[in-house]
Fold this sequence. Notes:
Low-confidence stretches: 1-24, 45-49, 51-59, 129-137, 188-193, 495-501
Distance between the termini: 70 Å
Number of strands: 17
Number of helices: 22
Helix content: 40-55%
Strand order of the largest sheet: 15-16-12-17
Largest sheet: 4 strands, antiparallel
Shape: globular
Amino acid sequence: MSERPQDLEDRTEVPFEDSQYKNGKVTPNTIIGWDEKGMFLYEKDGSSFTRTGDQSDEDQNPDQRPEDLEDIYFAGPTDFTIYHEIGWIDRVTVRRSTLNLIERHYPAIREHLPLRLLLQYLLLNRHEIKLNSTWEGEGSPLPAEMLAAVAGRLEQHRSRNFRAKDMLWWAKHELFDGAFAWTDWDWHPDSWQRRYRRVKELSIAPEVTAAVQQERKTPVTETAERVWFDTGTKYTPQSASDFRTETQQSIQRQGADILEQKGGPEVPRAIQTYLNDLPVDGFNKVVRNHIEEAYAAAERLSDEAPGGDHDPGVRHAWALLRAIEDCPKPFYEAKFNTPRLYAPGSLQLLNREVRAALVQDWTLLDLKSAQLAVCAHQWDVGPLLDFLRGGGDIWDELISCVNLPKPALKKALYAITFGARVQWVYGSPPSTIIDALTEEAGIPPAKAEEARCKLMAHPLMKALYEAREERLEQIERDGFIEDCFGSVLELPSSNTQDENADASVLTLLAAEAAATEMRLLWPAFEEVIGNEYRCKIMLYAFDGVYIKPSDPTREDLWVEKLQGAVAQQAEDLGIPTRLELEES
Length: 584
């Protein structure tokens, strides 16, 4: 055993698992962690940390090949459960001609599945909105979890026994002939603040770039030459069915585990089971009938957006449309830190304008000012409750005050409701609200700042903000919330190791309101469960639902029935909202 360093002789030893780094000193409460760079000590708030044996600058340089790097070979995953285990890569289909072109330019993907999957991510998957990833240029994230998954080393990554740079250097030489560079991984003790490696240089053949752009912007269903990118095999009804079955089984297993940890809330479980058990025919029909109209709607978004094809909302819409073509039916996942059910890569998360074109045969029923009404009730915001109960329309009120369109005000209002800073602090502007107003209303920052001042001077907004701050302080004092389904969500302690580790006061604030929002909609689900042959809820959209009656002539009756059931629930809960019929 090596001798104890002289500069540590006077320090008090503490149990390894019970330590915390505080103000540069090791105390009995020090947190000790381990990552791919080694051991580290840190404070809970991340303001101070140290390492035991940092790597040399040369070893950390991403542009210099590591000396210990031997010949690399990864076999890749043994199956495609990685698509359900991580959120960075999805199964996609392309035209056979497109895949043939890509394989000609990058022949290594014919022999090496990990390189095929990495190239798929770089060409197709990275364009979804994830950590501000870019469109064509630098900055797209290269998370170690994704690299480990495509290498078939996910378990090694989770046990801290995988070097992501090995995968990247292999791709640099075997796939891109050296024309590939990335930034270093920037460590931070709080996982959500860690900075992923990002693409710094990536040279894609112009022919491939053009083919991929064409793939994104047009339906693949218009051709019979449709293949899965990851296997090169033909897309068939059977392969699509197998993909759906695997997805549903994985999501239901994961959801059962999460909901069990949350105390087994019956309502979220029942809604998830109902939605995931819906027959696929209705979803296939909307894609078959209206997918080209949806792509046309996305093209209109591109024409109207300041950034054109590079606009995040536009590229998000195209990425989702391709995912919907491959798997039209949404599958809803349970999450630990919210009662909401999310269906990634589906209709649920599609831009409203594009979704409207795709589901034009369904009927949208929306809770009126749902989040605002729920928060006004939960936080006992008297002036706002009186306004809503008196029939006031918050959007008409704020539009007349600020003179900006509803989408901009809606985005700003929900940012205020769920924790965005509303004032300048130490010379730093409340950028979330200003950016929302700037982007959605298309106005310069100076005008957005004027609008913010007017917005926060409105008596209803002042009352809402003050109540929000009181509730945040209460959650901080209590250290937990218990939602309307009886699920308890706690703030993490210094030694938290479970799924709750990334929870924050704002997470709990949003989860509390989301549970009540779901409770408001539950009577609508009760009406259709067991009556699917008469009417189905086809899509859950957080504060609303899309329905499809079997008999179109009875649509008005079903709308009235669902509205009545939700109205009774809202009255019983004392929340001033209702289910409104809206154009989808």
